[in-house]
Amino acid sequence: MAQRCSRAGASALLVASCLLLAVAGSSAQSILQAIEAANLTLLAAGIRVSGLEATLNSTTGPNITLFAPTDAALLEMTAALNSTPNVLVTLGPKVAPIFAYHAISTPLLAADIPVGDTSRPTLNAGLNLTVSKAANGSVVVRGLGSDANVIRTDILASGSVVHIVDRVLIPFFANVASAAMRTPQLSSLLGAVASNGLAAALSDPNLNVTVFAPINDAFNASSAYLASVNASIVDVLTYHVATSRVVNGSEVTTSPITLSTLNSKANLTVAKDGNNVVVTPLGATTATVIAANIPVGLDLVTGGPRTFVHLVNAVLLPFYTTVANAAQRAGLTTLVAAVQASDPTFLAAVTDPAFRGTILAPSNDAFARTLASLNVTAAQLLADKDNLRRILNAHIIPNAAVFSTQLTNNQTVNTTGGALLNVAISNGVVRFNAAKSSAKVVAADVSVGNGRAVVHVIDRVLLPADLTLPAPYVTVAAAAQAAGLTTLLAAVTASDPAFLTTLTDPDFNGTILAPTNAAFTATLTALNLNASQLLADKANLRRILNAHIITPGAYRSSQLSNNQTVNTLNGVVTVRINGTGVFFAAAKSSAKVVTPDVVAGNAVVHTIDYVLIPADVTLNTGGGGGGAAGIASPSVLTLLSSALAFLALFAFGRN
Ligand SMILES: *[C@@H]1O[C@H](CO)[C@@H](O)[C@H](O)[C@H]1NC(C)=O
Ligand SMILES: *[C@@H]1O[C@H](CO)[C@@H](O)[C@H](O)[C@H]1NC(C)=O
Ligand SMILES: *[C@@H]1O[C@H](CO)[C@@H](O)[C@H](O)[C@H]1NC(C)=O
Ligand SMILES: *[C@@H]1O[C@H](CO)[C@@H](O)[C@H](O)[C@H]1NC(C)=O
Ligand SMILES: *[C@@H]1O[C@H](CO)[C@@H](O)[C@H](O)[C@H]1NC(C)=O
Ligand SMILES: *[C@@H]1O[C@H](CO)[C@@H](O)[C@H](O)[C@H]1NC(C)=O
Ligand SMILES: *[C@@H]1O[C@H](CO)[C@@H](O)[C@H](O)[C@H]1NC(C)=O
Ligand SMILES: *[C@@H]1O[C@H](CO)[C@@H](O)[C@H](O)[C@H]1NC(C)=O
Ligand SMILES: *[C@@H]1O[C@H](CO)[C@@H](O)[C@H](O)[C@H]1NC(C)=O
Ligand SMILES: *[C@@H]1O[C@H](CO)[C@@H](O)[C@H](O)[C@H]1NC(C)=O
Ligand SMILES: *[C@@H]1O[C@H](CO)[C@@H](O)[C@H](O)[C@H]1NC(C)=O
Ligand SMILES: *[C@@H]1O[C@H](CO)[C@@H](O)[C@H](O)[C@H]1NC(C)=O
């Protein structure tokens, strides 16, 4: 000791400390006694509660080096964590890792510190400090979260050594901004954080979050794309911060965990994939964690970190990058299969990050419904390349992302196949009407490429005019019109407007028993009425029409069985099936099915040969029976022409 103090070339600092030691006297003291003698009262208090007291108050070893922070250093550190030394002391043994981080496991006198950087294990197992000596003899100790200058050297405590330092060495980062600042691989992230006004938020030591921090290579790789889609960097950066407190290795399993982020518009999922932890954003590129569990902040309840930073190898994009990406994440598997089965140009368009346009994307249910109404299987449609191409072409509005706010009622939009779609907006429901089908938007405005393209998910497949498969009618009214059911249409038009609404609704889920013109003639004859009389008798007309509407439930003939009863809007009808056909029996008449299973939108139409007369009809109904031929009277024809003109506004169907 005396030798060292007298060694030639000792720094002024060393000389000063030797003088102080001379005053302090004995070296047969423990580390704890030495720091008490040096008036490092806050450090002494911390050591006393930490559980390190026995080790640090020993005069018989183990011999170590302690970098001892001043009271001012402890005050500064706790203030940076929005706390005080007293609060730190209340953590008791939980503070041990901090103080153990100040002790290296061998005695190291100032003169023995080599010039340059030396990494030394600390009593905080697995963590090293870097002791760095400059040519002029000054020593800096670098920890994970902070660096400290040695301001007084070589206080001897039995075989141990104490050096006083001006900062607390923290085995974690004080805050996220500091983690980025002290990690060279995060300099690009740090620059982006600073230039987008997020530095202050990420300097908050109270954040309880998880940060997925893209390394410089990842940042640089994404910058051109982000610029090309004019992405909001704030949206991108906030997407890398999950709002839950921590995610560490053991919490992550092969079943994905969903994490909310500071970007309220999008979540992330995290899952194990083999030995990797993979983060899946909305955007197509997943990221792999390449360095996990970098600790940030001090949780004053547990003594552990508040936040973990995980370094990742890709920037997480909070929006879909391609239409295929959006379709795949939304589970639109049938659409994806259709695109793959079709012309390669479709696949090229949906996987092109530069694609601009609007895609109307039928859901899996939409395909199932449409395939059922087309009476083909998915395999049949996928094999029918021409019709598949015509169909897909009718779902692409090229060149512009048309968001729902840009759509107006009765607007016409063109598609890549040249099929024109009519937009109908009513009560907040948006429909796209194609020549042979009508689809409702069920999920609007799925943005792709930050608004470069947009996907609207729809509930039906759009069937264009050039489709060569026999397509279902869009509405019951269209089916009735095509089948020449002019008297029925006249009756509907003359009656309650609600009937017309029902029969022109592509979503109407029901079964219509539709009397043919001959059925009306036969029934009118039997009732001894003419058509005008029936049409003028609104009350009975309404009762009669209601007895022909089964809802909910579109019953195909295969779903009917003998003696089955089904509810109409006015009473029950009984199904009779025998060798001569399928019959529906109402209270005062029954009718035979003439043409079964005409699919119209969601509904099924069976034409019948007689009008069903329910119990509450007050006409002289005579006897019910099968149909007979008849000729419509001139008055009926007059009514029909006006009814059809009206219907033409609503109904659209097979060309
Ligand atoms: C410690 O504090 C006491 C009382 O304030 C003072 O007398 C003593 O000189 C101080 N010792 C050191 C080494 O600063
Ligand atoms: C440290 O040890 C000395 C002697 O072994 C003892 O007198 C003193 O009370 C101890 N200090 C603490 C804080 O336990
Ligand atoms: C700590 O330092 C020792 C000795 O210098 C070295 O062998 C070891 O690799 C270092 N450990 C870490 C985690 O840096
Ligand atoms: C600690 O150092 C002292 C003085 O150099 C020495 O006598 C003692 O044996 C050392 N103790 C241990 C456990 O190495
Ligand atoms: C973080 O969690 C601690 C409790 O452990 C709580 O006191 C603090 O307010 C939380 N901070 C934020 C920003 O939510
Ligand atoms: C994120 O997930 C939470 C909970 O799982 C959910 O409530 C929230 O709606 C999701 N946010 C987004 C934008 O998907
Ligand atoms: C559906 O197609 C099958 C043959 O693929 C045919 O047997 C059946 O009659 C069709 N059904 C309807 C309602 O057209
Ligand atoms: C819808 O647009 C067509 C022409 O595109 C026009 O003839 C018709 O009057 C419009 N209908 C309504 C209800 O605006
Ligand atoms: C619709 O687009 C096709 C080409 O995609 C074009 O040939 C056709 O003229 C367009 N129709 C209208 C009405 O703009
Ligand atoms: C129609 O109604 C029936 C009976 O309520 C129901 O089972 C079926 O799912 C409905 N279909 C549609 C397409 O809504
Ligand atoms: C149908 O109902 C009739 C009488 O209502 C009855 O005689 C007959 O056995 C029933 N048939 C079946 C198959 O249930
Ligand atoms: C079949 O049932 C209908 C309606 O119930 C009836 O009018 C007809 O006579 C029956 N035909 C035979 C062959 O039983």
Automatic annotation (TrEMBL):
Residues 27-169, 173-316, 319-462, 472-612 form the FAS1 domain. Pfam families: Fasciclin (PF02469). PROSITE patterns: FAS1, PROKAR_LIPOPROTEIN. The chain crosses the membrane at residues 631-652. Residues 1-28 form the signal peptide. It comes from Chlamydomonas incerta. PANTHER family: FI19380P1, PERIOSTIN-RELATED. It comes from the Eukaryota. GO terms for cellular component: extracellular space. Keywords: Membrane, Signal, Transmembrane, Transmembrane helix. InterPro entries: Adhesion/Biosynth-related, FAS1_dom_sf, FAS1_domain. This is FAS1 domain-containing protein.
